[in-house]
């Protein structure tokens, strides 16, 4: 090839990279996530990337609108009959994607497969969310009663994301097929194809009880590289990306094919510690780590101000938050002193892990700040997906700890973060592996077993003071949900971190 031809080719490729193309048909909405959950079965995972897919394929008994108000969904009404008994009236004539009509038996079966009555091994990681439910009784074809073993103040919140699944279909195809190739719900979109770690292809469900969504096709692509997500948004390959970093916001706001929508959310960031093993079995070391991190500097310089420092993992919008509990200040001198008192005057080596690829620079900054005070930190980044899930969530083997975040399942209550992170029962998520604080389990159980809201607030205040002192984690900040979208799509970020894409519309 002649020399000038190379220049011509380079110019052509450059133009192709920067000139926007309408790569997707107007009736198709494409969303990029960093990964897919290991299954499409909504009861058999707890990953946000999976929830964002599931909520568009399944309905729950209740729904929340963009103002975060309860709305009827598969239940048209609900009322308490006592402190431990609720009645739900079911919507008539709702169809699953395979044409079967939703029955009260499907509702009971959905709860039973998570609770597994009479069994000791709970295979669903969502068991801890609803373990207070003792029984679901069918009163008549249009009515169910949910019975709890004790007063359960979180019941309605938990039912906003508890998808109802088809019993007969699952028994026919088997649970493995239901989670991969034969996933059937009642939501706005139905499954066409799932190519693992590449895309989930959905199509509008014509018989959806709300009516048809504005986009006929919904594609959720797994794109772990943030730079690739941004490039695809600019050139029309995707229409929506999440967790846009602060340094990219100005560029995307000014791009002719994109805009940015942001909202404060519950999601809280932390570095969770394995309290079972040295050196983080010592409270002074854990406290030193909290003093070592300049949270405000990271929020302002790396998050563009789109974050709020927290004193513990209980977020300000959540019920039970105590504003009197103050965050750890940045005090590297204090951190070094505490390390020396703990028996590490020359410092100590630790390893932290993360699959939080959208916040890799933040993780590296945290590791450097810890290193600067003597907690010499090796940060290990994992690709999100099966290996990371098995290593951390399935086996609890992350050396010393990990950097991550928790979104409360979009439940605005302190229990929704305290139980999964700090309770040690098998139905917990991280607490069963890492947390060892005497008396904490009992307090969490007590607060989730009474409808006396004043009492619950007192218990949560006690818990927040306790965990601030014991420091089972580095308490960091809550983030904003920052979306970047194609200008062909009309959609706004929500305060519950859902991508409820039934509300998305093509821009005319």
Protein model, in words:
With 508 residues, this protein is an alpha+beta fold. It has helices spanning 3-18, 48-54, 104-115, 127-130, 155-160, 167-173, 175-178, 226-235, 249-254, 283-292, 295-301, 332-341, 360-373, 386-394, 415-422, 431-434, 440-447, 453-470; strands spanning 28-33, 62-64, 70-72, 75-82, 85-90, 133-140, 143-148, 189-195, 199-204, 217-222, 240-241, 258-273, 307-309, 348-354, 375-381, 401-406, 473-486, 489-490, 505-506. It folds into three domains: 19-57 and 172-263 and 481-506, Periplasmic binding protein-like II (D-Maltodextrin-Binding Protein, domain 2, 3-Layer(aba) Sandwich); 62-165, Dipeptide-binding Protein, domain 1 (Alpha-Beta Complex), CATH 3.90.76; 264-480, Dipeptide-binding Protein, domain 3. The model is unreliable at 1-22 (pLDDT under 50). Strands 1, 8, 9, 10, 11, 12, 13, 14, 15, 16 and 17 form an eleven-stranded mixed sheet that branches. Strands 4-5-7-6 form a four-stranded antiparallel sheet, covered by helices on one side. Strands 2-3 form a two-stranded antiparallel sheet. The radius of gyration is 24 Å and the shape is globular. It contains 18 helices and 19 strands.
| CATH homologous superfamily classification of the largest domain | Dipeptide-binding Protein, Domain 3
Largest sheet, in brief, is:
11 strands, mixed
Number of strands: 19
**Strand composition percent:** 15-25%
**What is the overall pLDDT average?**
92
Q: Tell me, what's the shape?
A: globular
Contiguous runs where pLDDT drops below 50 for at least 5 residues? 1-22
> How many helices does DSSP assign?
18
What's the CATH class of the largest domain, please? Alpha Beta
What fold name goes in the CATH topology slot of the largest domain? Dipeptide-binding Protein, domain 3
Based on helices, strands and strand pairing, what is the structural class? Answer: alpha+beta
**Multimerization state:** single chain
CATH architecture classification name of the largest domain: Roll
Helicity range of the residues? Answer: 25-40%
The tally of structural domains comes to 3
Q: What is the radius of gyration computed over CA atoms, rounded to a whole number of angstroms?
A: 24 Å
């Amino acid at each position: 090839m002649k020399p000038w031809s190379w220049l011509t080719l380079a110019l052509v490729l450059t133009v192709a990279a920067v000139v926007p193309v309408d790569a997707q048909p107007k009736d198709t909405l494409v969303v990029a996530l960093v990964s897919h959950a290991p299954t499409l079965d909504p009861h058999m995972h707890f990953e946000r990337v999976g929830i964002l897919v599931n909520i568009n394929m399944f309905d729950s008994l209740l729904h929340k609108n963009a103002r975060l108000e309860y709305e009827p969904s598969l239940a048209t009404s609900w009322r308490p009959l006592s402190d431990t008994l609720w009645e739900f009236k079911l919507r008539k004539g709702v169809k699953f994607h395979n044409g079967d009509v939703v029955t009260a038996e499907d509702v009971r079966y959905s709860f039973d497969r998570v609770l597994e009555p009479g069994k000791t091994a709970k295979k669903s990681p969502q068991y801890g969310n609803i373990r207070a439910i003792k029984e679901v009784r069918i009163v008549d074809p249009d009515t169910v009663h949910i019975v709890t073993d004790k007063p359960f103040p979180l019941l309605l919140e938990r039912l906003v994301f508890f998808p109802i699944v088809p019993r007969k279909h699952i028994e026919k195809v088997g649970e493995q097929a239901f989670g991969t190739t034969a996933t059937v719900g009642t939501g706005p979109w139905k499954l066409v194809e799932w190519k693992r770690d590449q895309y989930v292809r959905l199509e509008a469900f014509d018989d959806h009880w709300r009516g048809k969504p504005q986009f006929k096709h919904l594609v959720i692509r797994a794109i772990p590289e943030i730079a690739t997500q941004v490039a695809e948004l600019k050139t029309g390959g995707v229409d929506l990306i999440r967790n846009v970093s602060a340094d990219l916001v100005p560029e995307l706001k000014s791009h002719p094919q994109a805009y940015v929508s942001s909202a404060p959310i519950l999601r809280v960031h932390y570095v969770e510690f394995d309290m079972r093993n040295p050196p983080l079995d010592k409270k002074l070391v854990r406290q030193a780590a909290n003093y070592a991190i300049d949270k405000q500097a990271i929020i302002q310089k790396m998050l563009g101000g789109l974050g709020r420092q927290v004193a513990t993992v209980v977020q300000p919008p959540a019920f039970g938050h105590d504003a009197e509990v103050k965050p750890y200040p940045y005090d590297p001198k204090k951190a070094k002193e505490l390390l020396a008192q703990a028996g590490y005057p020359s410092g100590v080596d630790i390893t932290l892990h993360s699959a939080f690829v959208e916040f890799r620079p933040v993780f590296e900054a945290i590791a450097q700040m810890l290193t600067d005070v003597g907690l010499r930190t090796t940060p290990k980044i994992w690709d999100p997906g099966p290996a990371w899930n098995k290593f951390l969530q399935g086996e609890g083997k992350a050396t010393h700890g990990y950097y991550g975040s928790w979104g409360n399942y979009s439940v605005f209550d302190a229990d929704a973060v305290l139980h999964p992170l700090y309770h040690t029962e098998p139905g917990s998520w991280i607490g069963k592996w890492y947390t060892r604080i005497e008396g904490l389990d009992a307090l969490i159980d007590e607060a989730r077993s009474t409808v006396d809201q004043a009492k619950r607030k007192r218990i949560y205040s006690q818990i927040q003071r306790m965990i601030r002192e014991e420091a089972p984690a580095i308490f960091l900040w809550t983030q904003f949900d920052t979306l970047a979208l194609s200008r062909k799509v009309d959609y706004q970020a929500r305060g519950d971190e859902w991508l409820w894409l039934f509300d998305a519309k093509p821009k005319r």
